[in-house]
Amino acid sequence: MEHPNTPPKPKGAVQARLSADEARQVFAAEVGPRVIGGIYHTAYWDTVYRVAGIHYGPDALAAIGWDAGWAITIQDAQGVQTHCTAWERDDTTVALPEVTVYRPSHGALPLGHYSTPEAARAHVTDLLVRDEPGALPVWLADDLDDPLSPVEAHLFGRGGAPEPTGYVITPLTIADHYDPAADE
User: For residue 155, what are the β-bridge partners?
Assistant: First the structure.
């Protein structure tokens, strides 16, 4: 990022912009601990806000109209706004979004933890295909109305009916803080 008093570059000079990944690394300290969905308190404005988006590189340019390298979209009592105000030492984290991880298992044997259900299904599918080449699992839920219901891999048997395999993927919600009332 150029200093405001830097003389303009000659016409025809090409300025290399940072990619989103490069900008993410360069501006990590300015963004601070903020994550999308997190709720924070800014000491300077004495207000609470929720992060709606964090933009890097070309996305930041599109979001704020000038090349700051990064930008953040927040929602607060005043509405929605996008800016590039850095995290300050007196700012605090109020709450972080819940995180869901997906744990595939076979019986009581856990097979890892994944950040997406697709990754957990890929792991189980790979194990099933090793045992039965060409296997095509379908994932049947315990509770059709609950998006966080465990699902079990079933394979089509001889009669065309899906048969359970014992491989289950369980979504686990990770808390961002201790809640004493949750134990009751």
Answer: 163
